[in-house]
Write a structure and sequence with these properties.
- There is one protein chain.
- The protein has helices at 14-29, 31-42, 56-78, 83-101, 110-133.
- It has 144 residues and is mainly alpha-helical.
- It has one domain.
- Helix 1 (14-29) runs antiparallel to helix 3 (56-78) and helix 2 (31-42) packs antiparallel against helix 3.
């Protein structure tokens, strides 16, 4: 292949890589409730979990959410095929989860939950802006 017909090198931004790394970290952190559920079932006499039992639905949904967010983070970091779709879908899904969570009745840990929700919202918006600002690969340049 001659030089004019070669695919141009993709211009990758650090912002998308950072956003993908943050999504991957969240994926790892959200595995924790599922691990606690497994430990609780393995050791039912545990003193650590006696005051707050973990629900099976919470553990399974946390595990699914962790897998989806972690996969989206890896796809963003490594710029896998269709990474933009994964980044946008997961980001908008997290925004919907955060907004719907604001309609719950206030609890004792409400200020902590709202602070965490605000941090997640800032990172998700950062990921959407980074995705938007990264230039797309010029596929048409290959066929000129």
């Amino acid at each position: 292949m001659t030089e004019p017909h070669a695919t141009p090198a993709p211009r990758r931004t650090r912002a998308v890589t950072i956003a993908g790394a943050l999504f991957l970290v969240w994926g790892v952190v959200w595995v924790l409730p599922a691990a606690v559920f497994v430990i609780d079932n393995a050791f039912p006499d545990s003193l650590a979990l006696r005051h707050r039992p973990i629900n099976l639905v919470v553990a399974v949904s946390s595990l699914v959410l962790a897998l989806v967010v972690g996969y989206a983070g890896l796809a963003m970091m490594l710029r896998w095929r269709r990474w933009r779709i994964w980044a946008g879908t997961v980001s908008w899904g997290l925004i919907v989860i955060i907004v719907l969570g604001q309609f719950e009745p206030p609890s004792a840990a409400s200020s902590l939950e709202r602070s965490i929700s605000l941090i997640v919202l800032v990172v998700v918006v950062f990921a959407l802006v980074a995705k938007r600002r990264e230039p797309r690969a010029d596929i048409a340049a290959v066929f000129r």
